[in-house]
Amino acid sequence: MKRLVSFRRSSQIIFLLTFIYILWSTTxxxxxxxxxxxxxxxxxxxxxxxxxxxxxxxxxxxxCLLMLFLTLVLGRFxxxxxxxxxxxxxxxxxxxxxxxxxSDAANRGLRKAKFAILFVVFxxxxxxxxxxxxxxxxxxxxxxxxxxxIPIATFLLNAFFIFLIRDLHAGGGVVDAYHALKxxxxxxxxxxxxxxxxxxxxxxxxxxxxxxxxxxxxxMLCPLGALYALVARFSLLRRVIQGCVQCKRCKSAxxxxxxxxxxxxxxxxxxxxxxxxxxCPPHITKFVxxxxxxxxxxxxxxxxxxxxxxxxxxxxxxxxxxxxxxGASFGKRTSAGTPxxxxxxxxxxxxxxxxxxxxxxxxxxxxxxxTNGLQxxxxxxxxxxxxxxxxxxxxxxxxYNCTLCGNVCxxxxxxxxxxxxxxxxxxxxxxxxxxxxxxxxxGKTCIVCEEHCPISNKAIKLDRSGTGSAxxxxxxxxxxxxxxxxxCQAKCPVRPVRAIGVSPQQADRT
Length: 510
Hints:
This protein is mainly alpha-helical. The termini are far apart. It has 3 domains: 3-146 and 197-234 and 261-303, no CATH class; 338-423, Alpha-Beta Plaits (2-Layer Sandwich); 429-503, Alpha-Beta Plaits (2-Layer Sandwich), CATH 3.30.70. The protein has helices at 3-24, 38-41, 44-54, 61-74, 77-82, 84-93, 104-126, 137-167, 173-182, 196-208, 216-220, 223-232, 249-253, 275-279, 295-303, 312-334, 352-358, 364-368, 404-408, 419-423, 438-442, 448-452, 487-491, and strands at 237-241, 285-289, 374-376, 389-391, 429-432, 460-465, 472-477, 500-503. Helix 7 packs parallel to helix 16.
């Protein structure tokens, strides 16, 4: 019985379900057992790169240092036993037909790319540009789960129960089960995200790559995997074999291409899947805690790219990577003199340049927004702002009594605010277009915007003119009271263009 493999698969399933549960329970009101930023604080790439970029130590960063310490002891266990994206990639790769193993040279070539990406991430961070969010596996998985999986699964499950009850007239236990689910997993609002198909396409490309080559993403492109690989080279847990018969079945079974032709392995690439232990016919492969102390072993690792040694080709490779990182950083700096602030950001967000660098595009704030008003940006704030959140009042407004977006942000790009402080935080200013406003343009009564304004003494006031039955109440905005929550724009009955709109002018940014 493959007990170690069974343990590993059980661990993968448990952590994947926990990851989905955390994001699924990130809803209004916040009621999950685990905080939504749990997995992100365990991610050393996100926490360290963001801390370097912002010149601060993010709260909870000690958890990611614990992960690096455990990697120093156990090796690259996170990728094989915990990573939710790695589990989904394994599920996709299980549909791939077996293929002959690649040569050692081909495997070494594949690995170089992820180390170059990691190098660019940290060089960019040093010079103030946050790029770790682009390819980080935890962020990629969270975006897919929050903006694709949960809305689709909730919609389909809800539609299935409605079909059973309304069309097939099912009753009794089915109705009871539906009501029970409506108070739990079906209680999540089905939110609309117009650009979520791009996030889905990105995720499908990651998983689809496993049909070309097992764990191709992890081998070639994952910067978090590259960071763990560097640390895992010095881990205490080590694969050993004695009396190898050179059948190469372990090499064929290795999903990471970590095992070489002579049955030795690249320690930093091993994700401890344990397949090689059970594929070995004489059962001589095992993992033990053993320090590599001989010069001979160290020299052999360096010769094969397993240690800290660097060849001329690798040196050129790193130089090119450095130029790319510096180019991106300086390109951003030269255009950052007047950052584009033409979108409405969540309440209290950091100033635009810092916000774009601190936000990791995890989707937590958009998932938890009770009105669905927070939406992913495409190019409205420049390419550097892609997939960051913005408020779209036509879709949903900023709920006056809600502070959840700040509470679930893992990096503090949206700060945690007390409710009273948040109520005073200005997102922008509303402005009435009198040329299409019903009372102003047509002389008919409409006070929808004033009725819905949540400010106690009303930021939208009424100008009553005329006499008797001809008196018309015309709304106007008190700029000293307006916080730009967008409810007036969301509720305005004028179509297709609202007669009142919020712009990000004079927003309170920290």
